Amino acid sequence: MMPKNAFYAQSGGVTAVINATACGLLETAQQYPDKIGKVYAGRNGIIGALTEDLIDTSQESAEAIAALRYTPSGAFGSCRFKLKGLEQNKAEYERLIEVFKAHDIGYFFYNGGGDSQDTSYKVSQLGDTLGYPIMCIGIPKTVDNDLPITDTCPGFGSVAKYVAVSIREASFDVLSMAKTSTKVFIMEVMGRHAGWIAAAGGLAAEKESDGPHIIIFPEVIFDPEKFLAKVDFCVKKYGYCSIIVSEGAKNQDGKFISEAGTRDAFGHVQLGGVAPVIANIVKDKFGYKYHWAVADYLQRAARHIASKTDVEQAYAVGKAAVEFAVAGKTAVMPVIVRKSSQPYQWEIGSANLADVANVEKKMPREFISEDGFGITPACREYLQPLIAGEDYPPYKNGLPDYVELKNVAVPKKLATMFEVKK
C-alpha cells in the first residue's frame, strides 16, 4: 500500500507544552515513510480541515520542528469549535471527507481536551457512517487535568508548577508588607468544574504558616461565613492571608460566583473575574487592604517555568499517537499510566475515545481537606511528581528564544468553499 498523508490539529485552549506533543508526533511520523507521507496541520484546528486551510509541515526544517518542544502556545493555531452530531450537520462530515480525499489523508490526529476528544470520536466513525475509512487518534491536552482514564493531562503539570511558584512568591511579598499594607491576597486560576489547578497551589504550603492558607474549589460550595472566619483566623495568626480561588467557584445555589451571562464557542458559560468578588467580600467584612490577580493566559503560556515531567509526557503522547496509528489502532487516545508515586514512574497506555469523550474528571473528595479549604497528603502525593524538574528553553537577549514556524499553506484542490457556522 502507498503511504497516506496525515492531518494533525490543535484544539481548545493552548498550553505551554502542546507544541512538544506536535514535536513528538512530527518527528515520529518521519520514522515511518512507508506508511505516512506528509503531515498536514490544520490552520486553527478542525476549522483548517473544513475550509481546506492546511499547512505543509514538511516545509519546516528539522531544527524548527525540534524547537517546538520548548515553544508555548499552538504553533498551527487552535480553535474552539465542536463538530455537531452527524444527524445535526451532515454537511460538515461530508466536507471533511471531501478534503481528506482531495489530499489523500488517511490519518487524523486531534490534540485537545474533552470537547476535542468528542470531535476525534465522531471523526473516527466516518468509516462506519459515511464509508470513508480513516485511522483516528485523539491526543490528550488540557490544563484543567479533567480528562478521564489518563493519570494526568499534558499541559497540567506546567500550569500547576506556575501556580505553585507564583502563589509562593506572592505570599512572600504580602507577608513582608502585611504589618502596614496588604493583608489579603487573592489569586484566581483556571478550572471551570474541576479544581486541579487550584489544588496545585497548595503544594506551596509546606508548613502551616505558608500561603496559600485558603483554596476555594469548584467541588466545594462556597460558604461566605465559613470563609470569612478562616480569613480572620489567618490574619490574626499569621499576619496575612493568601488565597487561591478557582474561576469555577460556586455559591450555595450552585451558580458560578463569577458568571458573566455569556457563553463561549463550545457553549460553556463565560466566566468573569471571581477574584475581585472574593476581595470585596473580605473588604466589606473586615476593611483589610487587599490585592488580587488573575493568572489567566499567563498560567497556561508559561513555558519558561514548565515542568520537565510535563514536557516529557507531552512529547510521549505525540509519539505514541503515531505509533498507535501505524500499528492499525483507531478511535483511541494515548494516556499516562502511573506505575508508582515514590519513586515516580509512568508509562503510556491507551483508552477508547468512546470512554473519554465528554467525560469530566473532578477532584476526588479525599484530595480536599476536611474543612474544604486545602489539600490532603494524598493529593500532595499525586501532584508533587507532576511539577518535578526544570526544562528551560534557550534564551537570547535575556528572553526565551521561541520558534515561529513558516506555516506554508498547502495548495487548495477543491473548487468549492465551505462556510463554518459558529
TrEMBL record:
Quote the Pfam families the UniProt record gives. PFK (PF00365)
Biological or metabolic pathway of the protein: Carbohydrate degradation; glycolysis; D-glyceraldehyde 3-phosphate and glycerone phosphate from D-glucose: step 3/4
Concerning InterPro entries, the annotation shows: ATP_PFK (IPR022953), PFKA (IPR050929), Phosphofructokinase_dom (IPR000023), PKF_sf (IPR035966), PPi-PFK (IPR011404)
Q: Which organism is it from?
A: Beggiatoa leptomitoformis
Sorted alphabetically, the keyword list is: Cytoplasm, Glycolysis, Kinase, Magnesium, Metal-binding, Transferase
Annotated active site residues, numbered on this chain, are 144 (proton acceptor)
Q: State what protein this is by name.
A: Pyrophosphate--fructose 6-phosphate 1-phosphotransferase
Q: Name one GO cellular component term.
A: cytoplasm
Q: Which NCBIfam families match?
A: PRK14072.1
The coenzyme or cofactor needed here is: Mg(2+)
Write down the position(s) of the site called Important for catalytic activity and substrate specificity: 115
Q: Which family is this sequence assigned to?
A: Belongs to the phosphofructokinase type A (PFKA) family. PPi-dependent PFK group II subfamily. Clade 'B2' sub-subfamily.
Function description = Catalyzes the phosphorylation of D-fructose 6-phosphate, the first committing step of glycolysis. Uses inorganic phosphate (PPi) as phosphoryl donor instead of ATP like common ATP-dependent phosphofructokinases (ATP-PFKs), which renders the reaction reversible, and can thus function both in glycolysis and gluconeogenesis. Consistently, PPi-PFK can replace the enzymes of both the forward (ATP-PFK) and reverse (fructose-bisphosphatase (FBPase)) reactions.
| SUPFAM superfamilies, A to Z | Phosphofructokinase (SSF53784)
> Where is the site Important for catalytic activity?
141
Instruction: State the HAMAP family in the record.
Output: Phosphofructokinase_II_B2
A biological-process GO annotation: fructose 6-phosphate metabolic process
Instruction: Describe the location of the Phosphofructokinase domain by residue ranges.
Output: 9-293
Ligand binding (substrate): 142-144, 190-192, 247, 297-300
